[in-house]
Amino acid sequence: MRRVAVVGVGLHKYGKFDQSVTDLIGDAVGRALDDAGVSWSQIEAISSASSRSGGRGWGLNGNDIVRTFGQSGVPVYNLSAGCASGANAFHTAYSMVAGGVYDVMLVLGGEKLPKGMIQYAASKEDTDAEYVKQRCVGVTGPNVWALEANRRIAELGTTPETFAQVSVKSRILARDNEYARYRDELTVDGVLASPIISEPLHLYEVCPVSDGAAAAVICAEERLSEMKSSPVWVAGCAVATKLWGDAIPSDVAGFAGQQGLHHSEITGAVAKALLQAGVGVKELDLVELADNSVFHELQVPELLGMCEPGESDSLLVKGQTMPDGRMPINPSGGFLSFGEATMAMGIFQVFEAVHQLRGWSGKRQVPGAKLALTQTMGLGGNAAAIVLKS
């Protein structure tokens, strides 16, 4: 396997826009190409995170970008893995470059979602398990996250104020991130005064949906001399799916779960990526994780072994998850401040990690950052993890 580097990244500001998803992605792609110092003709293949809400309704985001930038005959790989799609697309590109299939590849993803909570069901048919779950059982994403949060309260004693502090911390960081959608400061009281979405989660404790796009250019070590920017190395990259018996089933039919088996797709992907990188979880300088709700920013570090069960609460309160703390988490501001543009999220995290490892993050900079982990999870029990090294 060859060494692979990220040589260019681009991000479109998150929000709600009149532009098409192709326009959003095109902006991110242009920025990534400029950052890498490469021309469109140098791109040998494209790995695209695509969903039914983009790419002419057929999940063809990559093909729409080819039509925009130039129909050069370049191969396009469109894929979907729910909210893990961007990172899965990155893994696909990484695997092909590392394996010698291509030397220079473009990874992209973007999304425009309707207002309101993300609708998981692709149809209104009783053969669609997600439709049955939402319509008959009444379980949407925020309901599942609320169940998880209630379990944490019962087992570890997390308080409403601690959950709210995650959102407060997110906005403090987003204040200095020009790409974030929500940059106004919050207070604990303000978070707890926002409407309940699903007990115990309030409006400001669940990530919203946004329009957004991200892109990255990766290349084999042998081609680095052609690139303009400082390379950030892909030290580890892995995908995984959920194990049978997980406490959080990925479909309607699932039993109570095995003791200790919780978000096995996340732990599986991260374990594989760290093993490939040859590093331990406590060697990481920062982590960009999928904070679909405030619960996740507290629970995931514990699942990964970054700290002990229940310790995330005190680390948060003491400021140890800030960029200058012991365990920097989501220095970007995370999903809570950006909102979720599902197809872009894994690549958005790569953008933030690359900027951190280059020392380009300004007031949000993690001092001396050399090693970063990104982690996403998606519908269907998908997950992906990427370890980047300066």
Any idea what the CATH superfamily of the largest domain is called?
Answer: Thiolase/Chalcone synthase
Q: Kindly state the mean pLDDT as a whole number?
A: 92
Quantity of strands, as a count? 11
Overall radius of gyration: 20 Å
**Assembly type of the shown chains?**
single chain
Question: How many domains?
Answer: 2
In DSSP terms (H or I, runs of 4 or more residues), the helix count works out at 13
Widest sheet: strand ordering: 3-2-4-7-1-8-11-10-9
**pLDDT below 50 for ≥5 consecutive residues: which ranges?**
none
CATH class of the largest domain: Alpha Beta
The rough form would be described as globular
- Helix percentage range: 25-40%
Can you give a write-up of this model?
This protein has 13 helices and eleven strands. A nine-stranded mixed β-sheet has the order 3-2-4-7-1-8-11-10-9, sandwiched between helices. A two-stranded antiparallel ribbon has the order 5-6. The model has no long low-confidence stretch (mean pLDDT 92).
Topology diagram in text:
Blueprint: E1 4-15, H1 21-36, E2 45-49, H2 55-59, H3 61-69, E3 76-79, H4 85-98, E4 104-111, H5 129-137, H6 141-156, H7 160-174, H8 188-193, E5 196-198, E6 201-202, E7 211-220, E8 232-241, H9 264-277, E9 286-288, H10 294-303, H11 311-317, H12 334-338, H13 345-358, E10 371-378, E11 382-389
Parallel strand pairs: 2-3, 2-4, 9-10
Antiparallel strand pairs: 1-7, 1-8, 4-7, 5-6, 8-11, 10-11
